[in-house]
Amino acid sequence: MQSRMKNPAMVLSGAMQPIQDIFKAVHSGGVDGETLELVHLRVSQINGCSACVDAGAKAARKAGVSDERLATVAAWRETSYFSPAERAALELAESATRLADRPDAVNDAVWDAAATHFDEKQLAAIVLMIGVTNMFNRLNATTRQIAGAWG
User: Where are the alpha helices (DSSP H) in the chain?
Assistant: First the structure.
C-alpha cells in the first residue's frame, strides 16, 4: 500500500498545531490516560484506520494498557479486563462514532452511563477525543496513510 499524499493536517500550514492543542486540552480534562487511549483505539478500529490503530496501540501501551486489554478492546463487552467507567467510555465512543447506525445514535442510556462515571469536564475530554480521533481516521483512511509511517 502506498499513501496518496501526506496527511492533510501536515500539508496545510497551521492545521496541525490547533489539533495538537485539542489533544493537550483532552489530556488535561481529568480522564485517566489509559481510558483516553482505549477510546482512541476503539474508534480507530471501528473506522478501519490502520495508521491510527497502530499508533493507538503503541500510545495505549505507553500509557500502561496491558497486552490483554489491547488484544481484547475490540471485544470489550465479552471480557472482564475493563472497569465499569472504561466500559461506559467505550460504549460512548462506539455510539458517537457510528452515528448513522441508529436514529438516536447516542441515546440517553449510553450518555447517562458515561455521566455516572465522569463529570462534565471529563465527558468533554472524552467527546473531544472521540471527535478528533474520528477526524484523523477520516483524513488517514482517505489519503491511505501507512501504519507505522509516522515514527
Answer: 8-11, 16-27, 33-47, 50-63, 67-72, 84-97, 108-117, 120-143
63 C-beta neighbours (distance < 10 Å), count:
15
pLDDT in tens, 35-62: 999 999 999 999 999 999 999 999 999 9
The answer to whether the beta carbons of residues 63 and 37 sit under 8 Å apart is yes
Distance, in Å, from the CA atom of 74 to the CA atom of 38, rounded to the nearest integer, reads 10
Phi-psi region of 128 (alpha: psi -120 to 50; beta: other; left: phi over 0): alpha
> How far is it, in rounded angstroms, from Cα 15 to Cα 73?
30
Question: What percentage of residues in the chain have a pLDDT greater than 70?
Answer: 98
C-alpha of 149 from chain center: 19
pLDDT at 150: 58
Number of neighbouring beta carbons within 10 Å of residue 99: 10
User: Do the Cβ atoms of 110 and 18 come closer than 8 Å?
Assistant: no
* CA pair distance 5, 72, nearest whole angstrom: 32
Q: For residues 140 and 93, give the distance between their C-alpha atoms in angstroms, rounded to a whole number.
A: 19
Task: Give the CA angle between residues 127, 139, 74 to the nearest 5°.
Answer: 55
